[in-house]
């Protein structure tokens, strides 16, 4: 790819023009300083205004620090429709503006708009931070207020529109503009011409190519630049529906495929200059339109074309002007003027502009009332308009001869024309589609009086065209005779792939299917780890994990195996045991592993995790592994960084050993791996890789499989990690004057902050970061209120959340705050949040420059006492513990999690504190699982039971049952705790029966409990739950009643000494509600009191789901 466009030799600038490569911000020929005064030397004829109070208050006296005339300009009336205009000598680069009031008076402007134009007709407002934004003016008549423009402006005309002024005086103004000369080479195309530029073939192709230019046009489609390589591959820049598209084409001719690469800009057909540049550095491309840049990689041209490729969108040549076209610092327009560039068609080296004056209606109540020129019985009306709104009135007027009233308006993004007369609808016509630009021509009967308009750029009535800036008009609300059209979705403020749509006054982000939420799709809706899901009470299952929150890494669906630890399990394409056999001519087997998560996701998960592991096993038969102790390894694996590793699972990095070598228990001690003995018998080397910096296993190379008789098999298990270092990262602030400090927080357009806290204090500042004027702060302002305050230049704003209960209860509470260009929000735990909308068209950049203080403030007042944990700013966790280690008054960590998470332990499970988190002890609960939430009871239908049979003592062992427990019964019990819970509607009934090989037994029945042995209970044989005892004489006599079989629910039976809980629990859970009635047996042995319980061990040898009784 690095050489795809190196040998290009033809560039067309066109009406079929194209653009080459990548972007570079090429400024005009700058002087070392660009701050020369531009206004003071101009003649009075260069100044014009909307009106003047008198000849001595004329616009020509509006020069900074001058006292000529009345000492400055003042209009006849002081209202918002006055303006002062200055015509500079030529198009100039303007870098600053300064204002002053009228000398020796009470007249000055306190707020104003600043506008620029090349022609004096088509004006554009200066935008601060992507909104029009008014400038603050003066507070008296003599002081000078200067603003350095954030982005220099190229223009010949400057216009100031006063918005506010001294309430005790009038509008009064003197001004100066600063800048420097601007070099401009322009060329105009009429839609049929183009330039052909051929770079010098003797110049060695560079690794970096740059093409930059400015353009302006009134047409929304047309090809700008085309660059062609000798191979036929081309790069094209075209304007399509007001957007710039950069496309790559493979091949020549009509069948060539177009690869759309990127699209930037919107509504660029506004007759204003726009800057575009394309810069290629090898295969990397930077594409810039105005101030917006996208970076991408050029695709590979090798192989067949992909499906879905598009042809070129535009079939038009470019119609408009280009300026300062530079290709690798060569001025193409200068070469064209010097006849060094081939010219085809009518090309002019000037830029002719239309004198059409657009009108902007800034509010729904704005309108113009125009005089109507009668021209006969019929009339045609034509106009153009542009809007983001889907509904709104365009035009209305009364028809002649009382024929009714015509209404032309937008409805559901379509144009609708209706004629109403005396309450009846006479005509109803709908046309058009949902585009932003319209041309409308319609014919109708002549009308009278006035036409009322909204949102138009030009109006024609029959053969008469109104130049709207030159006519008399009525307007009750702001109407501007220039075009300012807020493009709020280019660039889009919607993050993480959110889809942007806009109206005239605002924009909206559709965050569906992105995994993010909020006004700008900034904050993740998922947790950052399985550990976080566990502490919300979730159990094992698949969950979306967003490891960096609002950062760039996308959420990923990952399996969480939640037990005492919350394991994240990341699968790959081959976790099964893979067998290898001798293959002729193949010396090595190479396997690559593709994981279910992206590389950056896996790296972030591993970094954040407390521990990670991955099983690596090798089964061998006459196939050596690492060739220890002295040979070169036959096999190796490749880790995270692409480096090959020569150690195996269970060994340490760099050891070239297997687990048995490290533990010194290899089958052949002279080798460090079992397989290296080259045995003809099957052997294996298995273990866990746990060095996080090397995980995961990306590839595996297996050698020594080409000899006769060689066989091998390998297995690479899934990557598994537990723990979340950020989730438990905490600091305890034990002094009000203590704090932690971090580098400045950079959240200019979007800032999200989340953390947990617990305290017994009634107030305190959690964090604060200051700028010159801007700031951001979150604090506990009272026991029941959290306050989020900030200032981005529009004045302080506060967002508060009140909670019904006190927050200083020494329990963990979760705080989430977000501020973006649309709003600020604050949430505390699960309480209703609070949202504060951002001011319309105000400042949007949060500019901070001090250190970030955590647990205190810069003034060290109102410090926080308590614990702060898991502090994240824009998805990045601050390491509180690391800073706390070296900060007096702050200690790392914060114990006491059961006070907050103990409620997650259900069903009488008890919470046990851990260093990082907690566990649930279910030993005294008839439930199991992470939160004692899994019911392990079983439902017993009449005639069903469960029997647990122990292995016989050694001296009694004659016929060992294959189904016996692994727990031997040759132990003597002097005491045993037995616990069970049950529910039944039948009484009395047998619940539990324990027998021994010495015919001792323990019986537990509802309402009764008896133990027959008063000394020791020897050689336990079996435990029975819910068994029928129809004619069991011993039990009958004991309870003096014939016991029925148990019918109901018995939960887990707990035998502390025998440790049978886990076995019984798992069995009952698997077999829950599956026990079936027992069929009567043909006969029984008379000499055994346990006969009804079936003491024949061989009777358990065959077990199936059709049996009527289940044994463990």
TrEMBL record:
Any matching Pfam family: EGF
Family stated for the protein in its record: Belongs to the neurexin family.
Region (Disordered): 1078-1112
Name this polypeptide is given: Contactin associated protein like 3
Main location: membrane
Subcellular location: Membrane
Domain spans labelled F5/8 type C: 34-180
One cellular component term from this protein's GO annotations in UniProt: membrane
Keywords: Disulfide bond, EGF-like domain, Membrane, Repeat, Signal, Transmembrane, Transmembrane helix
PROSITE patterns, sorted: EGF_3 (PS50026), FA58C_3 (PS50022), FIBRINOGEN_C_2 (PS51406), LAM_G_DOMAIN (PS50025)
Membrane topology listed for this record: Single-pass type I membrane protein
Domain Fibrinogen C-terminal intervals: 521-572
Disulfide feature: 867-894
CDD domains: EGF_CA (cd00054), FA58C (cd00057), LamG (cd00110)
Gene3D superfamilies: 2.60.120.1000, 2.60.120.200, Galactose-binding domain-like, Laminin
Compositional bias per record (Polar residues), positions renumbered to this chain: 1091-1105
Segments passing through the bilayer: 1046-1069
Every Laminin G domain range: 184-351, 729-894
Superkingdom of origin: Eukaryota
Keyword Disulfide bond recorded: yes
Location of the EGF-like domain: 485-522, 895-933
């Amino acid at each position: 790819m690095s050489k795809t466009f190196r040998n290009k030799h033809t560039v067309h600038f066109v009406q079929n023009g194209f653009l080459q490569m990548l972007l570079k911000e090429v400024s005009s020929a700058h002087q070392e300083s660009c701050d020369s005064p531009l206004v003071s030397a101009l003649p009075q004829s260069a100044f014009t205004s909307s009106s003047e109070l008198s000849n001595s208050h004329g616009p020509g006296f509006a020069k900074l620090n001058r006292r000529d005339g009345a000492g400055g300009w003042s209009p006849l009336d002081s209202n918002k429709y006055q303006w002062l205009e200055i015509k500079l000598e030529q198009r100039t680069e303007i870098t600053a503006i300064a204002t002053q009031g009228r000398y020796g008076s009470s007249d000055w402007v306190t707020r104003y708009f600043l506008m620029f134009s090349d022609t004096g007709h088509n004006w554009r407002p200066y935008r601060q931070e992507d909104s029009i934004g008014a400038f603050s003016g003066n507070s008296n008549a003599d002081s000078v207020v200067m603003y350095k423009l954030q982005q220099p402006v190229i223009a010949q005309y400057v216009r100031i529109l006063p918005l506010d002024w001294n309430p005790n005086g009038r509008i009064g103004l003197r001004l100066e503009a600063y800048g420097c000369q601007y070099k401009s080479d322009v060329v105009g195309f009429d839609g049929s011409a183009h330039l052909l530029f051929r770079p010098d073939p003797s110049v060695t192709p560079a690794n970096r190519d740059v093409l930059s230019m400015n353009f302006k046009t009134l047409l929304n489609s047309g090809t700008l630049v085309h660059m062609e390589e000798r191979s036929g591959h081309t790069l094209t820049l075209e304007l399509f529906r007001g957007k710039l598209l950069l496309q790559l084409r493979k091949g020549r001719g009509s069948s060539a495929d177009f690869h759309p690469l990127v699209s930037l800009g919107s509504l660029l057909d506004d007759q204003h200059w726009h800057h575009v540049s394309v810069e290629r550095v090898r295969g990397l491309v930077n594409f810039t339109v105005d101030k917006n840049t996208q970076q991408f990689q050029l695709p590979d041209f090798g192989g067949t074309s992909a499906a879905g490729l598009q042809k070129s969108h535009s079939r038009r040549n470019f119609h408009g002007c280009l300026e300062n076209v530079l290709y690798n610092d060569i001025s193409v327009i200068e070469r064209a003027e010097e006849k060094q560039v081939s010219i085809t068609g009518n090309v002019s080296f000037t830029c002719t502009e239309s004198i059409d004056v657009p009108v902007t209606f800034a509010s729904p109540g704005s309108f113009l009332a125009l005089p109507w020129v009668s021209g006969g019985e019929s009339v045609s009306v034509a106009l153009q308009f542009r809007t983001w709104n889907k509904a709104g009135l365009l035009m209305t007027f009364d028809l002649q001869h009382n024929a009714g009233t015509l209404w032309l308006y937008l409805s559901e993004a379509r144009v609708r024309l209706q004629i109403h007369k005396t309450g009846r609808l006479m005509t109803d016509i709908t046309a058009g589609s949902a585009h932003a630009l319209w041309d409308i021509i319609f014919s109708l009967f002549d009308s009278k009086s006035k036409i009322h308009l909204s949102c138009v750029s030009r109006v024609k009535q029959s053969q008469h065209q109104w130049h709207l800036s030159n006519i008399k008009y009525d307007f009750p609300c702001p109407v501007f005779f220039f075009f300012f059209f807020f493009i709020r979705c280019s660039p889009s403020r919607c993050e993480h792939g959110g889809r942007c749509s806009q109206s005239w006054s605002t924009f909206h982000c559709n965050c569906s299917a992105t995994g993010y939420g909020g006004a700008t799709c900034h904050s993740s809706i998922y947790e950052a780890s399985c550990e976080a899901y566990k502490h919300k009470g979730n159990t094992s299952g698949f969950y979306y994990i967003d490891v960096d929150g609002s950062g760039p890494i996308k959420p990923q669906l990952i399996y969480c195996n939640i037990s005492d630890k919350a394991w994240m399990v990341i699968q790959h394409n081959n976790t099964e045991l893979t067998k290898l056999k001798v293959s002729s001519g193949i010396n090595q087997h190479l396997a690559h592993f593709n994981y279910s998560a992206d590389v950056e996701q896996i790296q972030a998960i591993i970094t954040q995790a407390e521990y990670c592991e991955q099983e690596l096993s090798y089964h061998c038969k006459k196939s050596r592994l690492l060739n220890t102790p002295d040979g070169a390894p036959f096999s190796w694996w490749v880790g995270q960084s692409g480096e090959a590793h020569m150690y195996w699972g269970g060994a340490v990095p760099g050891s070239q050993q297997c687990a048995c070598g490290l533990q010194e228990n290899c089958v052949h001690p002279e080798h460090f791996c079992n397989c290296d003995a080259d045995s003809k018998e099957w052997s294996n080397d298995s273990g866990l890789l746990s060095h996080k910096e090397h995980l995961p296993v990306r590839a595996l190379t297996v050698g020594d499989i080409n000899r006769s008789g060689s066989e091998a098999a390998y297995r690479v298990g899934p990557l598994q990690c537990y723990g979340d270092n950020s989730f438990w990262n905490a600091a305890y602030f034990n002094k009000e004057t203590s704090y932690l400090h971090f580098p400045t927080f950079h959240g200019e357009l979007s800032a999200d902050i989340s953390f947990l806290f617990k305290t017994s204090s009634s107030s305190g500042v959690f964090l604060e970061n200051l700028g010159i004027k801007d700031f951001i702060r979150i604090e506990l302002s009272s026991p029941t209120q959290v306050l989020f305050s900030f200032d981005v230049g529009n004045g302080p704003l506060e967002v508060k959340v009140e909670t019904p209960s006190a927050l200083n209860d020494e329990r963990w509470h979760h705080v989430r705050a977000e501020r973006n260009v649309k709003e600020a929000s604050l949430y505390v735990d699960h309480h209703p949040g609070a949202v504060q909308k951002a001011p319309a068209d105000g400042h949007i950049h949060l500019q901070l420059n001090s250190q970030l203080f955590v647990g205190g403030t810069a003034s060290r007042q109102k410090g926080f006492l308590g614990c702060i944990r898991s502090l994240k700013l824009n998805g990045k966790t601050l390491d509180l513990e690391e800073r706390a280690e070296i900060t007096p008054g702050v200690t790392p960590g914060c114990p006491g999690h059961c006070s907050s998470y103990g409620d997650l332990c259900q069903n009488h499970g008890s919470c046990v504190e851990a260093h990082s988190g907690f566990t649930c002890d279910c030993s005294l609960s008839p439930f199991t699982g992470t939160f004692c939430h899994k019911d392990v009871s079983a439902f017993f239908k009449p005639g069903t039971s469960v029997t647990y049979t122990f292995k016989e003592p050694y001296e009694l062992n004659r016929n060992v049952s294959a189904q016996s427990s692994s727990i031997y019964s040759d132990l003597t019990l002097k005491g045993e705790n037995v616990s069970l819970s049950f529910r039944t509607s039948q009484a009395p009934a047998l619940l539990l029966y324990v027998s021994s090989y010495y015919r001792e037994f323990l019986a537990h029945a509802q309402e009764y409990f008896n133990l027959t042995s008063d000394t020791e209970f020897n050689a336990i044989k079996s435990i029975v739950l819910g068994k029928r005892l129809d004619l069991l004489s011993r039990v009958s006599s004991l309870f003096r009643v014939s016991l029925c079989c148990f019918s109901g629910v018995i939960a887990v039976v707990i035998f502390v000494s025998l440790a049978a809980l886990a076995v019984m629990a798992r069995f009952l859970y698997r077999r829950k509600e599956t026990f079936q009635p027992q069929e009567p047996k043909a006969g029984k042995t008379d000499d055994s009191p346990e006969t009804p319980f079936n003491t024949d061990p061989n009777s358990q040898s065959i077990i199936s789901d059709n049996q009527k009784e289940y044994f463990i």
